[in-house]
Amino acid sequence: MNVLLVNPPSTGVFTTFGVSLPPMGLLYIAASLEQAGHKVQVIDLQCEPSDLDPFHIKAADVVGITSDTTRIEKAMEIARQAAAIGRPVVMGGPHPQFMAEEILRTGHVHCIVKGEGDLTFPRLLQNLERREDLAEVEGIIFRDGKKLVETANGPVPDPELLSLPARHLLDLGKYSASLNGIPLTPVVTSRGCPGACSFCSSSSFFGRRWRSRSPESVLAELDEVYNRYGFRAVAFVDDNFSLSPERVIAIADGIRARSYDLQWWNFSRVDNIVGNPQMVQAMAQAGSKTVFLGIESADDESLKTLGKENQGEATAKAVKLLQENGIEVFGSYILGHLNETAKDVERTIQMAVDLNTNIAQFSILTPYPGTPLYRELKERIFLKRWKFYDALHLVFRHPRINRHLLQFLLIKAYLRFYRRSKKAKDDFRDYGKTQDFSLKRMLTCAYDLFF
Ligand code: SF4
To answer: Is the CB of 195 under 6 A from ligand 1?
Structure first.
């Protein structure tokens, strides 16, 4: 079959300031479909200046669309367009799975793939080709008349056994993400997360069992991105790259054994860093430049409600250990936990300034569908437009802080952090030179933030 896979465009502030990365989930599915003999086209509207050309839809037998919460309205526009042309639309991604009823009710989407689609999507296409009963496909949700049918969970892929993502289907030169000015490509080395942070849907979507690729498999992909595609920087974008220190050390040793001139960044939990100084040293020696840490809050009670108890004191140690090894720290903070007052938020901002990580990102607590937080706050949600679920807007009635004050504190957090020292101001000015800060874009950005 001819399959068109579409990644919807970014929305709001992210179109102004966001960096773009290839959609790895779609590229993995594309690889599985190609292996099953299908002809696949991937269109990433993050990087295209215009809307989807109907020509591409007409050329396809099936249209697959991925989406998260923020981009679902754009994803549904594409689904409507494809359905109007008479093509079956298959959706995947966390938001469609957890809001299946709302999406299928529109009549534009044929079915939704639950969880990872690498094995389910090829099976579904076989079913569509043979015009068999959808109920026979495990891992999907669809409508049968007025009834919603959810089949048993589909097979969970072993990432070790999957084909490498089909990077050849995209023009990788169009993506803006870089590390120290060097263009980078993402690499996924594991799936699943044993954590259960209340604001995150990762463990509901991928499952709590951590499934990792062997160092050999990861190194084989690095060989490909380094030699075939010419990348000199990669981002290990899986949630738990450093869950097994032995595996990280083996990957780092493999990079060094190849004498690759490679820089990289990865996500990590604070506890994985602080308990493994040897691993941090090996990472630094093999080109690790930045580690993203979910620091979240200065407030112990907030950390507890997020499922990150015992993190408080370890955070400063983790930041110190990384920086002593020459690795920059990207700290991520969430403002406006349910128990917090404006004063508590100010304490988190002060903590970010004191920790002095190299980069900081502040987000407003957001109840994404599929998370324990969403279930808890469902009745308090007042902003129903999904495009506002960008962690820059308060979408629920907060028990202690009003909406405008929290958004003001978000801006204050950025101003305080990026004006904390002369060096920080200079770094920010350098960053500004790489961005389009035209009046029109800034006004659009301000509008997106406050309306
Ligand atoms: S925030 Fe990170 S550690 Fe927590 S559940 Fe999500 S992926 Fe796992």
So the answer is: yes
